[in-house]
2-isopropylmalate synthase (Dissulfurirhabdus thermomarina), 525 residues
Amino acid sequence: MAGDADKILIFDTTLRDGEQSPGVSLNMEEKLQIGRQLEKLGVDVLEAGFPVASPGDFEGVQRLARELRGVQVAALARAVEKDIDTAWEAVRDGENPRIHIFIATSDIHLKHKLRMNREEVLERAAAAVRHAARYTGNVEFSAEDATRSDLDFLCRVFEAVIEAGATTVNFPDTVGYAVPWDFARMIRRVAEHTPNIHKAVLSVHCHNDLGLATANVLSAVANGARQVECTVNGIGERAGNTAMEEVVMAIRTRKDLLPFSLGIDTRHILATSRMVSHLTGMVVQPNKAIVGANAFAHESGIHQDGVLKERTTYEIMDPRDIGLTGGAIVLGKHSGRHALKAKLEEMGYRLAEDDLDRVFARFKNLADRKKDVFDEDLEALVAEVVLRIPDRYRLVYLHVAGGSGIRPTATVGVEVDGREAFRACMGAGPIDAAYKAVAELTGTKSRLLRFTVSSITGGTDAQGEVTVRLEEDGLVVSGQGADPDIITASVRAYLNALNRLEYKKKNAAAPGVGAMCRTEKGSGR
Ligand SMILES: CC(=O)SCCNC(=O)CCNC(=O)[C@H](O)C(C)(C)COP(=O)(O)OP(=O)(O)OC[C@H]1O[C@@H](n2cnc3c(N)ncnc32)[C@H](O)[C@@H]1OP(=O)(O)O
Ligand SMILES: CC(C)C(=O)C(=O)O
Ligand SMILES: [Mg+2]
């Protein structure tokens, strides 16, 4: 197969398949921050979006293609000429742009979704790749739902698209149906029965519906796949995609079984994971492999004793390899702007001067109330202060009264379109009271789908981080807020989500790029 036989290419699709997670919608600044961090991490290919899906997707892909260096920026397209032309328009200014075309090959998709027969799909796939190959020599083809496809037909499709100019052929387990040993058999079969497979890189793209995505990917890699499509923290459609950090660390840790090289600088894994979690609002479970808060924590005495005597008794990876260190700079109330800037850069955030000023002001405020300011605190501040869409609603005042024997009451002041308004409400608790006041002040009718509160760092002076998910008229958004005062953090999270909702409503109503307007992220018509 084409490419370096010993190198596994990491194709990151956090900004495309990852953004297909329900409730996730990133703005331009957030996409740029994640894109730059992935560039630093060393991913080989970065799928930046599906340009025909919306003007926002188009602009995001174009901006990333123009800005990023040393990484191939890919754009997704259906096997439709307009999609391909739009994808090319979005990535063409990139250093090494890729067009990624997909069409389903399973009979179930052909019959019910595409309403095409096999020969029509084969011809459509080849014609689409031929069309894209006129623009670039870097064309990827994906056979959607490959694991439920007839393998003889799949081999014919792969052969036809390679002939038409595809340089990467991708085998997606779109619905997370595969199990490792059977997936390995399929990969071997395709490698052996597609005559010109050696002219292309064989890729895999696994979903995690049965919790087997990483296992499937590793079995494919051991059997000839040389590109892995994955997302940070495994976010993505339904149960998500293969988690990038799991595949990378498995290959790195089990070199005895998987003797391959990678272009990833693993020391940036943790910072990348945290950034993606903060910006998407997709909270990482504490026991998540590699990047969960407990992944390197030892609770029981026998384990602690073992680790103290010799770390490798209970650790198969060195936490420093994923960037889990104390860091050289410890920030507190005596720190200045230079130290803050250096720390933020170490964490992957490059801020404009005025953004730095705003974060610095909030940092000083926080440091006055909290002894040590940790990386997690700063991440929350950056997410809160900088990476935000233009605010229609802004918190200006909050006072709550509660305790035993008192009906919880909140008085909230919110600036709406530049004008301050105040409201006092009672509720089941202080947060309920404050949320009622915010809903009245903003006149919004959203439904609260989820409310998560976590302490960002240890101690009773820790910053509380609140993540909420709201729904209104079919639009789903998430919002985050951080503050040492948990009620303030809750109100900030609510307002952040309402601002995102406003932005999304406007985006949905905006005129499209040609006929590319969409009503909701991920939905047509
Ligand atoms: C497995 C994956 O992750 S695939 C990527 C999924 N991502 C997304 O869907 C991103 C967001 N999507 C969107 O914004 C919209 O679906 C759009 C803009 C792409 C298309 O919107 P619409 O034109 O309104 O179509 P809608 O989404 O309702 O239906 C999809 C159409 O594309 C067809 N189609 C689906 N996949 C393909 C393909 N790979 N190649 C060609 N046609 C396809 C369907 O058969 C259907 O056609 P029909 O209208 O003739 O029945
Ligand atoms: C577009 C393709 C590669 C995809 O996301 C899938 O099949 O899951
Ligand atoms: Mg997918």
Observations:
- Residues 17, 20, 50, 52-53, 78-80, 102-103, 113-114, 144, 174, 237, 518, 522, 524-525 surround acetyl coenzyme *A (ligand 1) (CB under 6 Å).
- The longest strand covers residues 393-401.
